[in-house]
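Margin note from the TA: students keep mixing up input and output lines. Inputs are the sequences; the output is the structure of the whole complex. Example:
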Amino acid sequence: MSKQHIYEGSIRNAIAQQSGDSKTLLRQFSAELFQTIEQALLTEGHIRLNKFGSFSLKWSKQRRGRNPQTGETIIIAAHPRVIFTPAKALKDKLNPQDIAQTDILQQEQAPNAKDQPKQLQLSREPYLIKNNHSQQKPDEKKSIRLIKPIAACLLIALFVIYFYPQQAQLPETNISAEIYSAPSPEKTREALPSNNEISFTKTSTLEPSIEEQQEAIPVATEIKQSPDKPTSAFFTERPHQLTDGDSLWRLSNKNYTNPFYWPHIYQANRLNIRNPNRLFTGRTITLPTLHGSPDSLTQKDKRHIAEGYFLIYLYQKKHNKPFPYYALLGASKYDPSIIEDRIYEIDEKDWQNLQLASN
Amino acid sequence: MNTGELIKQLAKNLNITQKQARRLLDQELDAIAEQLSLDHSVIIRGFGSFSVKQTRSQNRSSAFKASKKLKDQVKSWRPE
């Protein structure tokens, strides 16, 4: 049964249809009725309506309360309260299991000539009340609630499609990948016959989840400093104070136009950032210089980014995260020499996986 | 005040017979009670709203919330 709000007007219309009384009379009557109740409350403080209930006034002392919106403590002044106590007849009506009993009682009392209204009440059909405006509202709200997530998903999908061609070649190595359903090693090995396809499958599987992760975080507030525009470097080093919603991925996307360069920032701040997935607002990090343009990186940039990816590998290895060699793939993508230089830091298993993936 | 006194006053103020007043009163309260029994809440402008609430004993009872106007009207009342 739906909960509806019925207004006195619609009740009056139903009564008028049922009994044939004029609506004007009914309107005058109910206005007078409630006015009289009000007056009676003021003069006597109490009024009892037979078989319905009683209204009374109760003095409510001054008390302390809280503003429900701000939680601020306020003092509620002493004031009278209108109390309604339902009569037993009304309570019985509200509880269907008791209605049978009351019906019998009423039928027993019916022979009394004074109880004409009761007979009316038993014989008449229920009042039919049309109420149009209260039932539609929840549906509208529901549809709005549905539209929001759908719109969010669409936005994410568009975002992914937009970035897809740019980053397609890059093996994505986000540390938080283990949260999501990362492909099992066997599957990835099967699915990776050639070098290009490897990176493709990985970006396609991982990128949406990362996007979602980023979307979930509240949007970072605008960086106050305007980016310098030097003639030589695409981006010159500058400090950045972390605000709510910042992530390395986002900062990289914002400042280097490519989110996959985030290990660049990680590498530059390796002493400050212990866990790249967890940044602390208020701390200041350095956004390192990007010498070349995002499309054509200089050798120095590539090496730096590769070192960043290698750092991610070390982090993942240290914390037993699954598939740490993904980060190695990223590192070797930017600078293959880093693998040979730091081979003593790579686990044999990961080395084998890397060889399998890159052959 | 009780129902009899209320009916007398209503009949006097509206220039109708007491019998008529009683019938109209019963009709009105009946209709409200019936809507409440259907789990609807009944709103009377300028007076207040009746709603159904579930009491702990699995029984349904009626709750009344006074309207702002009524609250303002009775503000001057003080207990003896």
